[in-house]
Amino acid sequence: MDKEQRKHATSMAKQDVLDRIHNFYEVALGYTQEQAMAEAERCLQCPNPRCVQGCPVDIDIPAFIKEIKEGNFLAASAKIKEKNSLPAVCGRVCPQENQCQKMCVIGKMGDPISIGRLERFASDYERKMGVNIPDKDVAPVTGKVAIVGSGPAGLTVAADLVKLGHEVAMFESLHLAGGVLMYGIPEFRLPKEIVQAEVEYIKKLGVDVKTNYTIGRIFTIDELFADGFDAIFVGSGAGLPRFMGIPGENLGGVYSANEFLIRVNLMKGYLFPEYDTPIRIGKNVAVIGGGNVAMDSARCSLRLGAEKVYIVYRRSREELPAREEEAENAEEEGIIFRLLNNPTKFVGDESGWVSGMECIKMELGEPDASGRRRPVPVEGSEFMMDIDTAIIAIGQTPNPLIQRTTEGLETTKWGTIVVNEETGAATKEGVYAGGDVVSGAATVISAMGAGKKAAKGIHEYIKKKKGGK
Amino acid sequence: MYKIVAKKELAPNIYLIEVAAPDVAAKANPGQFVIIRLDDKGERVPLTIAGVDLEKGTVATAFHAVGRTTKKLAKVNAGESIMDFSGPLGNPAEVGKFGKVLLVGGGVWCAPLHYVATTLRKNGNKLVVAAAGRTENDMVYADELKAVSDVFYVATDDGSKGSEGLDFLADVLKSEKFDHAVVMGPVSMLKKVVEMTRPYGLNTMVTLASLMVDGTGMCGACRVTVGGETKFACMDGPEFNGLDVDFDELISRQRVYLPEERMASMIYDKLGGGVKRG
Ligand SMILES: Cc1cc2nc3c(=O)[nH]c(=O)nc-3n(C[C@H](O)[C@H](O)[C@H](O)COP(=O)(O)OP(=O)(O)OC[C@H]3O[C@@H](n4cnc5c(N)ncnc54)[C@H](O)[C@@H]3O)c2cc1C
Ligand code: FES
Description:
Number of domains of chain B: 3
CATH class of the largest domain in chain B: Alpha Beta
Structural class of chain B: alpha/beta
Distance between the termini of chain B: 7 Å
Distance between the termini of chain A: 61 Å
Largest sheet of chain B: 7 strands, antiparallel
Number of strands of chain A: 16
Bound molecules: flavin-adenine dinucleotide, FE2/S2 (inorganic) cluster
Oligomer: heterodimer
Number of strands of chain B: 16
Radius of gyration of chain A: 23 Å
Largest sheet of chain A: 5 strands, parallel
């Protein structure tokens, strides 16, 4: 491979923009075998790979890329699965530009290796070939573990512990397992079939998945212990939507992003009336926020038939927290970015439906605690936007139900559960936690990383607890 | 899958079903609700719990077959199953010892009100109960409510049985002192009763059936303004003190999906729709 060639990433086909804005099929189409092998060829196979340092779960990246280069796709997938139990998901939704790919040395001179696309390719290949169910290592001491929540954190803990030989029951309050992967991230970014394949996989490993069980209502954590569970992992996520607390927020047509996305993704509102759950979208939609949740809400709105969709974000393009690829896709699809603007109130028509949103212009001031420049309102710059739908995507905090109903579980003022970083142990004996319920809304891969640590912590705890007997 | 073990038509289009869900039954309390989903294309619909049978492991709930989902549910027979039955959700109603309690129920809501009433009575309260229906034929649970009350009134919108409308309650409130009130019914009725109890500062607990999706605090579809603050009916309620509730906002939020619901219901009436039966 010549030097020039090595600098350029193999591009991945995408659904044409004019088609995709009218459907919910996946936008990114993935590599073919030839493309994957060509991209793998670019990897320098560094002896001290920096990409691995950027991976929250330490995947042996050069090793799996080498397998792809040599055409051993199943071996590549197996290599990834040593560390990451949800590669088909992560290959699609990880912010690779801030993780592995950011560290890639080729990135200094050209495009970094498309590690995410290669990860996706290997795991899609494996899924098509039929996934192997590994033999269990039966641990010398086995325990009974309850997992609360079936998002990436819970799925990871469940898979790791059941493979070690423990008895695992997973409780999920919704009717389908998968957490945000099912109810939040849209089909066109992460097909639900892929998520359900992961859920089927852990079921086949022997995890008892109980949907429709809201812990804190049907059983409390203490009742689960009384029922004979040795340890409990809380991976209940950050599902409580934040509102802005501005006038008019309870008007018709003003949704939390969670309500909007649950109706669209989990309940398949885009297929109403074939599916029973309705979703109403207007002509002019304002989505407030700049993260993945905002991008997803905006792109769903477009696909539901909105004419104009705005992203209203109080900082500038540079601070946009969304995954870069999704922000680019959104721009390509014609989403209008109204940066450095902040809503101040909603106004409604006589029927109680939102008809306008007042915003104020912002400018960037001094950096704040997070290191980002703080947006400050420009006095007297208020203006009105004509809208008939607003979607509020300014963040989520943990649902307080478990924290409220569990004695001795220390939480922070943000409602997150306090844990030991290394083991995932919470302040109540036998309780472990990880993912968004500990970190606040973060990423799939960080939830999985926390799940890995907690699974280890729980295994050690059970060994110690039962060791004496 | 959750099996419907018994089904009764209480009045034209009003049904009571008992569903096998032992874990739900074991934890259910009066005032809490379940969320049901009929099949894999179904919507999530909240229904208030109307009683449990711990021995049989069943949970009872009553519904009025007016929308697409409830019309479909009315066609599911005893012995058949529905896909999802999640609960108990929401906080239990307050059923402690108050003294003299006024209970008012409207239509299908008389069934869950009976569950609350039974417990209030067990806890030593004196109960004055008013059961309301559109017409005599629409009355449900009147005999059952009568059996647990010290004083019992019936009212119908058309006067076909008992008093015509609920205006008579103004006189009852004038002549008797109550320590607590519980109202379950359509929002317009809740609002009306609260307007009558307000002059007496009587704590009037109302169960709010706001729009819901998940029922666990995730979506905020159920938000209501109570005492000037935004609350989630599914997490902070569904029972609130009616004196603090912004009913007009609630009524307008409830109408949000009316056009879609009418369309879905019309499509169902004209074309039917398969409910997968187990
Ligand atoms: C719209 C959207 C888009 C996103 N896009 C990306 C992306 O592109 N890349 C990325 O890396 N991250 C993304 N994220 C963030 C990522 O999805 C989360 O960080 C991750 O899912 C957290 O995993 P978790 O396991 O901690 O919790 P969750 O995935 O939130 O799962 C928690 C589960 O617990 C259940 N639960 C809660 N309370 C209870 C209870 N009391 N009893 C039983 N079950 C309960 C919930 O129903 C839920 O299913 C996105 C998030 C959203 C909302
Ligand atoms: S129903 Fe979703 S938060 Fe209450």
